[in-house]
Backbone:
């Protein structure tokens, strides 16, 4: 049984982010891989090492403040789980919070969890729009699409980006990089939500989760014609048809 | 009259004619032109009101509430200016006045009843000095235009704070709206009492579960839908205000909804000739506003009971023997209520969904994942097929797939005309058409070429504007 955790679904569920859990769970179920979604509620005890997949979304500024306060208490436990290969997908606010800090426009520095070598700086205007990124999955290039909406500009230290921006802004609108990849942690600015729109990325995460618990990571193919058509339409909207 | 105003009015009216000649509807261009030539145009025209200006705002129900209230006032014998087309930015509001003005700038009316986009409320209110503001509800909508819901609410809060004389008409059941009762302005609340459909479970798209005043989690005795319900903050004591206008015994009729409105200790039964539970809220808001403005409650009820929905507000058509419904969907709360219609209607039906991602729709379509399509896992038994169309129709199809709808029931057809035809000619005995803002008018146009309107002539001027 794979356990997929949704961190603070009450707080961090902007832009349909719960679709990421829906996609992860459905694509397991369609292949008869037993899976359960566990909602991690604010203030309740949690051991991240017991999870196979963790999703961290974003919220409004106020909601993210509440999350930060609570998650700080679990920092070491989350860090251990990540070292142990926990598969994590963090989007937007969740992504930023895994880094060293977030520098707001007003010279205020909000400390992050410092689990990933990156930091974020508030920018003068929001970076909004459809976005396409080329990522490498199992040595093969895959084009993923989504919608970004962030004012933070993220800069990477000694970590790999998730991919290269084909259209849109990505991490900061300047260096052409998008997201981050560190061990089995995947971070991105792409909402959409990301996983339902990009089934190959979803399957990659499922495989990694299976591998970690010593199960066969090879996945049976599914009928993904609708997803492929949606992805093609999204790329066409960006002039990348 | 001021020469600059004269020029602005006549230029605006010329722009309207040109734009109509070019085949556009011109529901906001005239105002844009006039405001450019003379920024004081709206202020000058609104000041002509014999009685006053009323603004209707909020995420959902603006158009319907506004049209209901305009009808109430019209049928009470007043001369009313109303921006019926949903052209609800400052340019569209100004256009509504220009349209009623003569070329020489002459304009007489009693009331202006104006639906105003949330983000435009501060700008419009500063110009028109409203006598009354009606706030329907706040849900997440078109995030990429406004940032976050919190910001929208703060924007309106600030605007209302500058209007201490203005009568507020507020939804008691929405904590985000009810908090405005704490402002200096006089406030009257409308709300719904518990009834058969209330839910006790938590729901995915509940917009704000936290007290808008102190941030603690709110306690709910029940929910109507989304965050609307009987709420109370355990910490600071903020709670649903006792509504002066309350809907009791809300229930579904065969082709409408009904309740008993209690006001000032008296009961007024109401039967609305349109489906959609949320329309009761719109009617309660219009009833509260209309009676406050001095219209007899019985006359308000009469006007509401003969209300005809505007374009895409559960507009009814007939195709051969098949009833056909067209409804605008623009945010999770509204779409969830549209899906509730499928539950109410037990007939076998075809469902059509058109999703566009133009600016007026919200370019970010991720909100589709905040809609509780998972209810279709069960409801699909009574659905012959789903046809998805629009610029992002394929994406809509993916959403249905992940909601658990059987693949063989999902069709993605980018060609709108083909897609409408497929749904109309489907094996169902009823058909439901849902469309986002910029898809609504094209869908209606195709529908109109195939079907007959259910009742009377739907006013031709009611097409939505993409202002």
Residues:
């Amino acid at each position: 049984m794979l356990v997929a955790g949704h961190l603070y679904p009450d707080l961090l569920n902007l832009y349909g982010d719960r679709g990421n859990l829906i996609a992860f769970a459905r694509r397991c179920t369609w292949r008869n891989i037993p899976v359960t979604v566990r909602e991690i509620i604010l203030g309740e005890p949690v051991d991240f090492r017991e999870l196979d997949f963790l999703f961290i979304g974003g919220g409004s500024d106020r909601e993210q403040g509440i999350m930060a306060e609570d998650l700080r208490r679990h920092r070491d436990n989350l860090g251990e789980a990540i070292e142990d290969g926990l598969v994590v997908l963090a989007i937007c606010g969740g992504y930023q919070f895994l880094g060293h800090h977030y520098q707001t426009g007003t010279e205020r520095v909000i400390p992050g969890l410092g689990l990933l070598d990156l930091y974020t700086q508030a920018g003068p205007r929001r970076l909004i729009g459809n976005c396409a990124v080329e990522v490498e999955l199992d040595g093969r290039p895959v084009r993923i699409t989504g919608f970004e909406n962030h004012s933070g500009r993220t800069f990477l230290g000694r970590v790999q980006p998730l991919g290269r921006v084909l259209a849109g802004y990505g991490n900061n609108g300047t260096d052409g990089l998008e997201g981050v990849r560190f061990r089995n942690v995947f971070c991105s600015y792409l909402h959409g939500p990301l996983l339902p729109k990009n089934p190959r990325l979803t399957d990659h995460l499922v495989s990694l989760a299976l591998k970690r618990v010593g199960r066969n990571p090879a996945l049976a193919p599914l009928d993904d014609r609708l997803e492929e058509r949606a992805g093609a339409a999204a790329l066409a909207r960006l002039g990348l048809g | 009259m001021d020469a600059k105003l004269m020029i602005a009015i006549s230029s605006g009216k010329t722009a309207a004619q040109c734009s109509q000649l070019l085949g556009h509807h011109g529901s906001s261009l005239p105002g844009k032109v006039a405001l450019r030539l003379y920024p004081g145009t709206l202020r000058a025209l609104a000041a002509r009101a014999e009685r006053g200006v009323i603004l209707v705002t909020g995420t959902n129900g603006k158009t319907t509430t506004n049209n209901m209230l305009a009808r109430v006032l019209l049928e009470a014998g007043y001369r009313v200016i109303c921006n019926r087309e949903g052209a609800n930015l400052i340019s569209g509001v100004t256009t509504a006045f220009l349209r009623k003005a003569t070329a020489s700038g002459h304009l007489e009316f009693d009331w202006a009843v104006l639906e105003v986009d949330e983000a435009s409320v501060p700008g419009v209110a500063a110009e028109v000095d409203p006598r009354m503001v009606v706030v329907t509800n706040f849900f997440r909508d078109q995030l990429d235009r406004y940032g976050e819901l919190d910001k929208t609410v703060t924007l309106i809060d600030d605007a209302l704070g500058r209007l201490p004389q203005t009568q507020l008409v507020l939804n008691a059941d929405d904590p985000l709206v009810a908090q405005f009762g704490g402002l200096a302005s006089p406030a009257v609340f409308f709300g719904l009492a518990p009834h058969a459909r209330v839910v006790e479970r938590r729901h995915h798209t509940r917009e704000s579960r936290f007290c808008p005043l102190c941030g603690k989690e709110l306690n709910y005795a029940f929910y109507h839908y989304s965050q609307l319900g009987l709420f109370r903050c355990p910490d600071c004591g903020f709670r649903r205000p006792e509504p002066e206008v309350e809907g009791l015994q809300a229930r579904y009729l065969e082709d409408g909804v009904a309740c008993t409105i209690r006001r000032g200790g008296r009961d007024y039964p109401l039967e609305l000739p349109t489906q959609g539970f949320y329309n009761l809220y719109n009617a309660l808001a219009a009833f509260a506003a209309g009676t406050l403005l001095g219209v007899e409650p019985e006359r308000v009820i009469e006007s509401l009971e003969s209300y005809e929905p505007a374009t895409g507000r559960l507009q009814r058509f007939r195709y051969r023997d098949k009833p056909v419904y067209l409804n605008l969907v623009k945010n999770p709360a509204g779409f969830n209520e549209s899906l509730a219609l499928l539950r109410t209607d037990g007939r076998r039906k075809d469902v059509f969904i058109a999703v566009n991602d133009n600016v007026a729709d919200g370019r970010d379509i991720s909100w589709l994942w905040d809609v509780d399509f998972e209810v279709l896992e069960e409801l699909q038994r009574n659905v012959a097929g789903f046809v998805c169309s629009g610029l992002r129709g394929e994406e809509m199809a993916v959403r249905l797939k992940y909601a658990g709808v059987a693949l063989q029931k999902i069709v993605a057809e980018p060609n709108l005309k083909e897609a409408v035809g497929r749904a109309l000619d489907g094996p169902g005995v009823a058909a439901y058409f849902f469309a986002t803002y910029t898809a609504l008018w094209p869908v209606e146009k195709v529908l109109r070429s195939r079907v007959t309107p259910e009742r009377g002539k739907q006013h031709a001027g009611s097409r939505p504007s993409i202002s």
Notes: Chain B has a mean pLDDT of 89. Chain B has two domains: 3-305, 313-462. The radius of gyration of chain B is 22 Å. Residues 174 and 228 of chain B are 5 Å apart (CA to CA).
